[in-house]
Amino acid sequence: MPPVMFSVVTKYHKGRHSLFLYNSEIFYAFTQDILRSPKQSKGRKITSRLAYSFGAFGHDAFYATLSTYFIMFVTSHLFDKSSGAQGTQMIAWITMIIAGLRFVELAIDPLIGNAIDNTNSRWGHFKPWIVIGGIIGSVVLALLFTSLGGLNTSNPILYLIIFAILYITMDIFYSFKDVGFWSMIPAISFDSAEREKTATYARVGSNIGANIVGVIVMPIVLMFSVKSNSGQGDNRGWMAFGIIIAAIALISALVVALGTKENDSELRKNTEKTSFKEVFKVLARNDQLMWLSLMYGIYTAGIAITNSLELYYFTYILGDASKFTLLGSLNAIIGIFAVLAFPPLAKKFSRRKVFFLAVVIMMISLIMFAFAGQSLPMILTAAVLFYIPQPLIFLVVLMVLSDSVEYGQLKFGHRDESLTLSVRPLLDKLGGAISNGVVGLTAVWAGMTAGATAGDVTSHGAAIFKLMMFGVPAAMILIGTFIFFKKVKLDEKMHAQIVDELEKTWSTHLETDETPAEVEAEADAKTTVYQDPVAGELISLKDVADESFANGSMGKGFAIKPTDGRVVAPFDGEVVATFPTRHAIGLRSDTGILTLIHIGIGTVKMRGTGFVQYVEKGDHVTQGQELIEFWQPAIEKAGLDDTVMVVITNYKDMPEFTYLKDSGTTVQDDEDVLQLSNVGLPDQA
Question: Which one is catalytic: 77, 414, 598, 620?
Answer without folding.
Answer: 598
